[in-house]
Amino acid sequence: MELIINPNPANWVNLAQRPTVDAAQLQETVAAIFEAVKTDGDAAVKAFTLQFDKVDLDTLLVSDQSIQEAIATVPDDLKAAIQLAKSNIEAFHATQKEVPRIVETTPGVTCWRESRAIESVGIYIPGGTAPLFSTVLMLGIPATLAGCREIVLCSPPDAQGHINPVILYTAQLVGITAIYRVGGIQAIAAMTYGTESIAKVNKVFGPGNQYVTAAKQYAQQSGTAIDMPAGPSELLVIADDSAIPAFVASDLLSQLEHGTDSQVVLLCDSERMARETLAELEAQWVVLPRKKIIEHSLKNSKVMVFDDVETCLDFSNLYAPEHLILAVERAAERCAKVVNAGSVFLGNYSCESAGDYASGTNHTLPTNGYARSYSGVSVDSFIKKITFQSVTAQGLKNIGPAIELMAAAEQLEAHKNAVTLRLNHR
Amino acid sequence: MELIINPNPANWVNLAQRPTVDAAQLQETVAAIFEAVKTDGDAAVKAFTLQFDKVDLDTLLVSDQSIQEAIATVPDDLKAAIQLAKSNIEAFHATQKEVPRIVETTPGVTCWRESRAIESVGIYIPGGTAPLFSTVLMLGIPATLAGCREIVLCSPPDAQGHINPVILYTAQLVGITAIYRVGGIQAIAAMTYGTESIAKVNKVFGPGNQYVTAAKQYAQQSGTAIDMPAGPSELLVIADDSAIPAFVASDLLSQLEHGTDSQVVLLCDSERMARETLAELEAQWVVLPRKKIIEHSLKNSKVMVFDDVETCLDFSNLYAPEHLILAVERAAERCAKVVNAGSVFLGNYSCESAGDYASGTNHTLPTNGYARSYSGVSVDSFIKKITFQSVTAQGLKNIGPAIELMAAAEQLEAHKNAVTLRLNHR
């Protein structure tokens, strides 16, 4: 992990670069699978599942009986933990619902907007050794709070054709309406076009590897909305002398274990804190089961020392981290200075793991600098806001002449005429 | 304009199709221009401006002096009309700002979110014969309300190198920070990468022809956010016997004059209303200056008669119109039934022109069925919402054990360790 003391501001933009990922070469594969699923529906999905997941499925839908059987195998203490997380996530996301505010902009001209759930949404949950049931909470809870009518979940089957029981438990807990054992590009294609058994959805959510990412890009170009562009996960920590090096090191490691392409950035206002944290990191990482992954992701990572916390915040805003830990004195006061970040953790006890699982905030966040223009997932991600206006005859008298002048100046006579005709009526 | 009586529900999906537009063949042109602008900056932008706009420019930035000179030429009554529209648009959009709501999800665990303006945004305003200054209002006003630091506007120059004075007047009125006389693909490329004179922006907004649309797609794939996917403008009107055929016809025509690819759909609960509106439309369109355009766009358009207004609303929700006029009795009561639409106009005096210019709502809306998953432009489009969490030592005691269990079940030991280490501290 590179240590840089007081980098020249001219180099900041370079230091804020992410490891580059090129998804362009996957385009042809993605296009071919989408085309096959569009044409052959379930048959194509099953063929790709045999090819990629090495399992021959009769049905794609997970039956209620299988779900109930799986639920019985989940330990009670884990169920209780998931319920606690659900309760916190619900409490926070419930505050995101908007009450319509009606405004009379001119006498007789009333405007407001109302939220409507996106009717059908799809959630992708990756497979692999670890069952990412926490993401089922993070996407399923705002979807049900928003009131989405169909909430479809796709996740790849294991060699026996099963989805992990904890994923199934969490899915039924949050109100997923249908679960399909389908993964990869074919899952995204099935939700984009619909098949005999899988519903076409209006928006696709969820993390995934480079294939899933490329498939979501393709889905977006085909007219299906997606949650946000994807990129490797990342954490930036600002630590002053009030920070505890062992805590900071543990947070950096929790980010680094995600994948070989993860990235962490540590910013300190003293070389001592930087060096002590690096020493702690060395001591902690060797005992972790994912130390091989961490060995790789450490190479993408940096420690920088700046003159003061203010300058650290300036760099952080340029970098626009997915996760930002403010392990500094008066952290709450510093919040106003944070301009670009996905989710922010204040003080020594707000570890990233808290937000990943159970504080209540969402863990689906903008990576790769997208925090400059995108928000993380929230109830907003599952709704549209429709504007309404009600203009009375008197209201149109008040604004009509202005509309006539403006429409004429834009050479849109029919726009003008729609007003003129009404003003002249009777 | 095709008249269909009581279409079979099995045909509804086909009837809700839009005219197809294929932007794929423009990809190579777009990629070449983006590459040139990325490499050669202003020189490339100027070369493309000479090639496409037939004007050789010294500078791209419009000077303050040119702006002031242009403003002096705008008639006072038009200025007053634009100011009235601005006042209404501001009043409505000001209601969209969110106040942070702080929630303690568990004792010692506090979560909230705060809005931050996207720091730098770009607004594209097309050129051509009609100066679309109303779009400057619709994009510039929410940008300034959000607090965006840089609000760049690009619009193509005419043969003399000028931008229309009304666009310049409106731009300075709403607080645009820099105006560039650059259009087409090269304008979007310049805002995506930045050049010597044009700032790189975080998000690009605005309408445009197929070239601009393809360029915005390319920008999005290159990491710059865009307002929404584009498509031809469209209007759906539901009219019962309380509607006035002449008014309805004038609204359909105001939509049809936008372009040859515009589309209107009229839904009635009686054949009488359908036929009377068609007769009014015939009478009105022949006298309009854009009748040639309307002759084309009428071919994309349909009139359908259903049994009742409820069924009309069902079809409308399937179609998901950009603009929806409810020229029906008890229109306000029907609003709850509207699920998919961009902006809704209630009653006989809420013509689409009102929302296009001056009621207060935004006219940048989702087309092509995107209203199923996207909202129109609002202050939300110019901000990100950052989540914050503050967890005390006691708070972590309360949620820590749940996090440890969940992290272990996801095989993320470093995530677990970040909590364990803190719980064991001292």
Walk me through the structure.
The structure is a homodimer of 426-residue chains. With 426 residues, chain A is α/β, with parallel strands linked by helices. In chain A, 44% of the residues lie in helices and 16% in strands. Chain A has a six-stranded parallel β-sheet with strand order 1-11-10-9-12-13, with helices on both faces. In chain A, strands 6-5-4-7-8 form a five-stranded parallel β-sheet, with helices on both faces. In chain A, helix 9 links the parallel strand 7 and strand 8. The N and C termini of chain A lie far apart (79 Å). The relative contact order of chain A is 0.14. The interface between A and B is large, with 130 and 130 residues.
How are the SSEs ordered, and which strands pair?
The structure is a homodimer of 426-residue chains.
Chain A: E1 2-5, H1 12-15, H2 27-40, H3 42-53, H4 64-71, H5 76-94, E2 103-106, E3 109-117, E4 120-124, H6 133-146, E5 150-154, H7 165-174, E6 178-180, H8 184-193, E7 203-205, H9 210-221, E8 225-226, E9 234-239, H10 245-256, E10 263-268, H11 271-285, H12 291-297, E11 302-305, H13 309-319, E12 323-327, H14 331-334, E13 343-346, H15 352-357, E14 383-391, H16 393-409, H17 413-423
Parallel strand pairs in A: 1-11, 4-5, 4-7, 5-6, 7-8, 9-10, 9-12, 10-11, 12-13
Antiparallel strand pairs in A: 2-3, 3-14
Helix pairs in contact in A: 2-3, 2-8, 2-9, 3-8, 4-7, 5-6, 5-7, 6-7, 8-9, 10-11, 16-17
